[in-house]
Amino acid sequence: MSEYEKVGLKVGLEVHQQLDSHKLFCNCPSVMRDKEPDFTVIRKQKAVAGEMGLKDIAAEAEEFKDKTFVYEGYNDTTCLVELDEEPVHPINKEALEIALIIAKSLNMRIFDEIEVMRKTVINGSNTSGFQRTALVGENGFIETSRGKVRVNMLAIEEDAAREMRREEGVVNFRLDRLGIPLVELRTEPDITSPEQAKETAEKLGLLMRMTGRVKRGIGTIRQDVNVSIKGGSRIEIKGFQELNDIPAVIKGEIDRQKNVLEIRNKLNSRKAKAVRDFKEVSRILSESESKLVKEALERGEKIIGMKLKGFDGMFKRVICGERTYAKEFVDYLKHFTDMKGFMHTDELPKYGIIDKQVFELKQLFTAGNEDLVLFLFGSEKECHRALHVLADRAEQLIAGVPSEVRNSMEDMSTKFLRPMPGASRMYPETDELPVKITKEMLKQIKLPDTPDQKMKKYVKLGLGEELSKQMIHSEYFPVFEELTDRFRKLNPILIASNLLSARDEIRKRFDANTDSLNKKHFIGTFELLENGNIAKEAVIELLAWLAVNPQAGAEEAMRKLKLQRISKKELEKFTDKILEENKELVEKKQFGVLMGFLMRKVRGRIDGELVSEVLKKKMGL
Predict the structure, then answer these.
(1) How far apart, in whole angstroms, are the C-alpha atoms of residue 307 and residue 310?
(2) Rounded distance between C-alpha atoms, residue 579 and residue 600, angstroms
(3) In this prediction, what percent of the chain has a pLDDT beyond 90?
């Protein structure tokens, strides 16, 4: 039995992939922008009842925080749909087709009718207060090296607005990302090891990329991981940037849940309890040397505390990485209040607070050796509200591992993000008609090659296994296929190598930004190459110029850089001249030096192999 079987590990994935199409419910382009916005709109959000007449618990918690949301937009790429000032347009048919292709690739049962629903969103990232989503298919699967993983759901939905900055009570979002079509895949908890979780995420991502119609780059695909162990609860972990982080974060969450359960058992043996008998402790601490205490009292704030029966020694216990048990309370407090933290007797005497004052604190709350006292600073109303939040958290942790949404951190630990959403967050979209999915529509869908089929195809083209693997995992394989089909005279290895390495080489050699390079530039360049207008050595230099001048064409770049291919006869004239000017080097058979002189004259205008061949012949080598 493996270590993961012993702890009863269960893992499920949620994968969100942006589709390469215009927005889902309007015709605005799906482009991210860096320029300053043209306008801003200020909103607040309020929790409302769902279809069953109930308010979502997470939505009510967010409303309690009373945040202000500022939405930034552009006159030419933001419309009234994104501002929630106009009803949605009919669903993007291209995006729906891509979703159907992915569903069929996963052997899913596709629904006869696509019904758009509204899903309550609590963090302000949707101007409407909800995300539009539609179920497309169910009961699919993907094969992994450790067995089949069921993919129980595929939905198509709109992406959220992009958070730009966050200040006290105010969050700024940019509307360029809001409405970009997403496919969401959700697996059953069939994954039984951290490594299988990474493999499954990678296979799902690759399967979607095989369509050639999904976006690539940072932020275009996101994975959420659901983790539970025996005796624990389902935890949804967000915030992954890299697939390689998945195993480490899962292992960290296993450790956290095991430690929280161990502490739970200790608390239960002590009959732990959050005692909601709040008392002011300002007088006891007024003569301390604590800077925090002095500053709070100078501001006219009160210091109010409470007792956590049975919690002594628990707050300093490490539960994951360098995170202590106390952080489970601090992060929860920060989510529901503006308080930054609190002080507790597990860390005292310290910070200018002496033994005598700790003794008096415990005496005031009739705290025994197994009890902990904590306190914080603020108005009486703020302190009482915050203490109730901390008492709630204590009660959750006395019961065990709370089921919640957590964020992954840089050290691979996790922190509380928000409560787990309830079932009352979903209700029908009244502005969008259902879409019928007919058998004829499904028959017309052509499935892309699987990764294995693609691999065999590329190897057959001569790329070899390593180069084929690189191409399949790159964002360029659709362009590669188009170029190899269009330019039959060119060696596929030459096309693949340039597609995969051009951007890095241009950045290194020319220190140029390559973001503006696109398919049009590659087509124009390879067309010149196939027609014999340029040599293959000119490809990178020509693309580098186009990266800086993206509006220009390949022919203009060739003329500006004087990269027109020269004939063998012209090469021989250059060679004769170099040899005549360097007779001493010719006598000493200094081929390398002479080759360097000659290449400076003809580099990029004729193939290097031919240059070498002509020079050797004329030197009698």
Answers:
(1) 9
(2) 14
(3) 73
